Amino acid sequence: MSYVNLHCHTHYSLLDGLGSPKKVAERAKELGMPACAITDHGNMCGAIEFYKACKDVGIKPIIGCEIYVARRTRFDKTPQVDVRPYHLTLLAKNEVGYKNLLEINTKANLEGFYYKPRADYGLIKAHSEGLIALSGCLQGNLPRAILSGDPEEADRVIQKNIEIFGVDNYFLEMQDHPFNEDQAIVNREIKKLSKKFGLDLVATNDTHYPRRGDAEAHDVLLCIQMQTTVDEENRMKYNGDFSIREVEDMEISFKDTPEALENTVKIAEMCDLELEFDQNLIPAFATPQNEKPEIYLRKLCEEGLKDRFNGKKVSKEYTNRLDYELDMVIKMGFATYFLIVRDFIRFAKEEGIVVGPGRGSAAGAIIAYSLGITELDPIAHGLFFERFLNPERVSMPDIDIDFADNRRQEVLDYVIEKYGRENVAQIITFGTMTAKAVVRDVGRALGVPYVEIDKLAKLIPPPVLGKHAPLKESMKDDPDLRNDYETNEKTRRVLDFAAQIEGTVRHAGTHACAVIISEKPLINYTPLQRATGGGDQDVVTQYSMKPLEEIGLLKMDFLGLKNLTVIEKTQRLVKAMKNEDVDLSTLGFEDKKTFKLLQDANTTGVFQLESAGMRRYLKELKPSKFEDIVAMGALYRPGPMEWIPSYIKGKHNPSKVKYLHKSFETVLSETYGVAVYQEQILQIARDFAGFSLGEADILRKAVGKKIPKLLAEQRDKFVTGSVEQGHKEKFAKEVFEKVIEPFAGYGFNKAHAACYGLIAFQTAYLKAHYPTQFMTALMCSDYGDTDRIVLEINECEEMGINVLPPSINESFANFTAVEEKKVRFGLMAIKGVGEGPVKEIINTRKLGGPFKDIEDFANRVPAQVLNKKLIQALALSGALDEFGDRRQISESYDEISKYAKYIQESQAQGQTDLFGALADSGAADQEQSFYLRDVPKASDIEKLTWEKEFLGLYVSNHPLHGLEKYLRKKATLIGELTEKQLGKPIKIIGIIGGIRKILTKAGSYIAIFVLEDPTAKVEVAVFTKNYHKLAPLLIEDQVVVVEGKFDNRRGGCQVICHNIKNVSLDTMIARSRELGSYKPDDKFNRYIPFIGEILDDSNGSNDTDSTEEVKMTNFDISNVDLKKGEVYGKPKDGPVPDIDDAPYVIELPSDVNKELLGKIKDLLTKHKGDRRVVLHIPSKESLKRIKVPFGVSIDPKFETGLVELLSK
Questions:
Q1: What does DSSP assign to residue 937?
Q2: Run of H or E including 891
């Protein structure tokens, strides 16, 4: 006898099902089942993934869903009435049934969602064709009727379902769960009802995990969902076996009703659904004269190319390339695609929305350039069409478009309006449980104390290139994690469950930029649902991006790019302040002022060029042409970053660049012998091995994917082609291994790098030529990000631009360029000031001019907004400084508010201003004066405290400014802490901020806060042991002395606090004055970095003390000056102690030879990872530090190899 699993949940039954569709299909195949069904709760998210997984293993996929059925109608949503919907299992027999299932599922989500996505019997009846229904689990309508002891209701439920589905398509579902008495009652009654109504029985197991051994892990998953622990008694729990059970096991359980098992096969045979993939479902595009899209596209391209040449004759090279591309596009059936993209970009540009110059490989198409989709000439920049559309392997085009992020929605709305709301939707995404997160989740579910689980999570190796290694690998390969796993029973339990659950879908989200556009309503191809946390109009597909693309639907990426918003706002400010139109489309690449800014690395706010590491390289490179910017953007990534020194060296000494073969020079000369771009690999494969560009792109993809079989095929093809071109086989293999393999994996898409290089150049140009306007736009864009604002204000000051506190008469809502070199904080930057009051203030000022004084302000601004919160926020932030003292105005809020209300009510009632009338009649001496409370003036320290409270930062000064010399005598300045002090006791003085109190699982508290002095800030942790003693001293803005241990935790620097003492700021200033060390006139630096930033910077630049650092430029060890001398340190017996972010130091003898360095180089190269490594070589004068230009994986194999090398 055979059996088919027809009621099965995957991990798309969020936090209720364990196991991916692939694992379910593999388990069904393993058990010899001819078919298997997927029936997730209320969604079909995994349907396509499951369908393909079943096809891959050779069994029949049955697509279904366990839907929720409303107790009344799906539109009824009365609290405590329309809850606990029924469950009903539906299976698609064929394409009609599948499309009906899509319809039911979509409308249940979009119309019937009330805690759960609910259909109703009316909806099901309207779309019942092609569907099979199973009566369901214990939450089904029929089982509930049976358990309620109402046989008449049970009969009515059955009759209703027979009416909807017919006798042949409605099956009574039995399950075997001995631990549940209700199931036995339902099974007994269902057998009777089967005979009474002539309905077939069917056996299922309501599967929630693939294997019996997954039961405990599934129970932990349920606890994660319900936020309970496994030890809690009254919690949701599945008692029994809910796995995909063996056929023999099911035969024993249903020995009295073997027909229930036979009917599973019968149902599987009734289901015959074949889905179509790789369709061309691009919507039609209405051309102006109803021309064929192919003809209209050619016409637009030819006109557009002429426009690009500004009346000059278009060269043959360009027309030939355009003809070639058009022929390919039309042959592939993608003419409409380009018309659609061109249309919404045209709309955006006509509406003044800034559009990016291009993104990804699309910039390689001259079609895109001619249509205005991209802005870079692909021929001039050496970009290839085949990198975008490969005629050797046809796939849907993929053009991603950047828009100013504040106006991206306008473009989306246009597309929705043009193609119909039913035809456009955003795409769902799924967040899965990653290594560290799952360990924390499982730890909570098992009731492990927070401190213990936090410690364990920190042992998880950090991600490499954004990806965590699977926990099972880390448990073997990481020595610390392996040791804890082997020696700690609690750890072993957590990690075992975590490894089982890792990768499980945890939640659904919405793709940040991807949109699906269809000619027909999307419900024909994918179920839909509301976006998580979205509004009524925010609809997403239930299928994720990959299944949608496999079906053949058109996906577009509408990206919002902040830098384009900065460009747009800068242009508007320049127009408003200087009456100049800045047309970036006509910008050349020879502007000296722009390159001077780049060479000086003054790149804060410049797209992709503002990180500390990038600025260091820019200073070394001294970029002088656009191609330098493009190359740096491509190289500054993990992996290729190691080649930056070679690029810089080649730029400054191009005559010394050597090439592996003379044919490579024409390809690599622009990047000084370094293969930076994927396009260069394509060229080498073409020129050296005779590949077509399409074949070369297939080679590139094969190398990138690192699939052994595919890689071997391409290696053989490359070598064969090279030999046919006249090269020796040995040399061809060397080229493949030394050039093709490493660089095809590392190489960057030049088209994308060039497009983003253009945005970098444009932002640099605006900053160089219009600094006030650019920095204002930048700060407006970063509004709300205090750390960024502080950094940018400091940059303004470096540029001679004054950033002033908010002003009631000069500030608008956001940062305001008042005049050249003068910018004001916006009123919206003040905490406690809402958008409504700001609008009222600005409108009042526009109508009546600047406010003369506080009385005029109270007289004119609507009284309803002048409450205590607003008046105090404006006063204490400094926005009302021109009207008087901050404290005086703040404490007079009641007088101001009452005066405003009285005056404005009098005016509203049409009464004459009594005092104005008296003045007019000669009684001016009786005119009322406006009084504020008589209170002491605010001190400077109080003003700074209020600025920090209401603006998020110190604007006019820093409380400890001028005390650096004094603080250095009393303690260590935070900014002068070094890596040598890690693990050692320190004493620091600073101001407390950002206090967080955390309750641990053990019921005790710990505290985290930030300590800041004028040079830097650092996170400080007060653990449970010292919490009760020190907690009373933790007060925001209090100056304290902290004693503790400088440590490195969670990848960042932290001080473990042992003791805190309060100190008086006034006393410190007084004593500093007495000692002559108080320097209040020294330059004030608003940007206070974290100490980790300073240490990172110092590790990337040459030390200024006796330590000399030599960058290991591609391991060119010839530049290391080796001198004879004493041995600095003996090789260590075993691993060097691991401090998360500190560099791994390899101490070498002073007489180390180049042969040993070469062997160390090879060892390092074989163990690339993410740990920084520095070689120390002592000499008489100094200690040479050789910084390895990439991360290294410090694992047992590496350390063993290192010890062996050094011991020799």
A1: P
A2: helix 886-891
Edge to edge, what strands does the sheet with 1183-1187 contain? Answer: 1107-1111, 1183-1187, 1173-1178, 1144-1147
Determine what percent of the chain is predicted with pLDDT higher than 70.
91
Q: What is the 3-state secondary structure (H, E, C) of 532-577?
A: CCCCCCCEEECCCHHHHHHHCCEEEEEEEEHHHHHHHHHHHHHHHH
* Residues contacting residue 25 through CB under 8 Å, at least 6 positions apart: 36, 50, 53, 54, 56, 57, 59, 61
Amino acid letter, residue 816:
T
CA–CA separation, 185 and 187 (whole Å): 6
SS3 (DSSP) at 112: coil
Determine the Cα–Cα distance for residues 772 and 256; give it in Å rounded to an integer.
85
**CA-CA distances (angstroms) from residue 36 to 4, 50, 621, 1175, 1205?**
6, 9, 61, 58, 56
pLDDT tens-digit series, residues 519-535 = 999 999 999 999 887 66
Statement: residue 1108 has pLDDT above 50? no
pLDDT tens digits, one per residue of 965-974: 999 999 999 9
List the structure tokens of 568.
């747009």
The answer to whether the CB of 543 falls within 8 A of the CB of 526 is yes
| Side-chain half-sphere exposure of 780, counting CA atoms within 13 A | 28
pTM higher than 0.85 for the full model? no
Is 677 exposed, middle or buried (CB count within 10 Å of its CB: 0-12, 13-18, 19+)? Answer: buried
Distance, CA of 760 to CA of 376 (rounded, Å): 14
Pinpoint the alpha helices (H) of 1015-1077: 1024-1030, 1065-1075
Structure token digits, residue 383: 């970009």
Sequence-distant (≥ 6) Cβ neighbours of residue 679 within 8 angstroms: 364, 382, 383, 384, 387, 749, 750, 751
- The DSSP element (H or E) to which 92 belongs, if any, is strand 86-92
Angle made by CA atoms 659, 664, 670, in degrees to the nearest 5: 90
The pair of three-digit structure tokens given for residue 196, joined into one six-digit string: 């009474």
> What are the φ/ψ torsions at residue 210 (nearest 5 degrees)?
-70, -45
Measured distance CA(633)–CA(378) in Å, rounded: 18
Cβ(13)–Cβ(41) under 8 Å?
yes
Q: Of 358, 400, 403, which Cα lies nearest the Cα of 381? A: 358
Q: Which pLDDT band holds residue 245 (cuts at 50, 70, 90)?
A: very high
Distance of alpha carbon 650 from alpha carbon 644, whole angstroms:
10
∠ CA 90-95-100, nearest 5°, is: 50
- Residue 910 has a pLDDT of 65
Instruction: Residue 1064: name the closest of 938, 887, 935, 941 by CA.
Output: 941
CA–chain centroid gap for 900, Å, is 48
Determine which helix (DSSP H) or strand (DSSP E) holds 122, and give its type and residue range.
helix 121-126
pLDDT beyond 90 at 1045: yes
Helix 316-332 to helix 335-350 angle, to the nearest 10 degrees?
120
Please provide the average confidence, as pLDDT, over all residues in the chain: 87
| d(C-alpha 513, C-alpha 142), whole Å | 44
CA distance 175 to 203: 6
Residue type, 407: R
Residue 1109 has pLDDT above 50, yes or no: no
Hey, is 428 helix, strand or coil? strand
- Ramachandran class of 832: left when φ > 0, alpha when ψ lies in -120 to 50, beta otherwise: left
**DSSP per-residue letters across 783-824:** TT-HHHHHHHHHHHHHTT-EEE---TTT--SS-EEEETTEEE
pLDDT at 153: 95
Rounded to whole angstroms, the Cα distance separating 24 from 423 reads: 32
Number of residues assigned to the chain: 1208
Alpha-carbon Rg for the chain, nearest whole angstrom, is: 35
CA gap 284, 287 in Å, rounded = 9
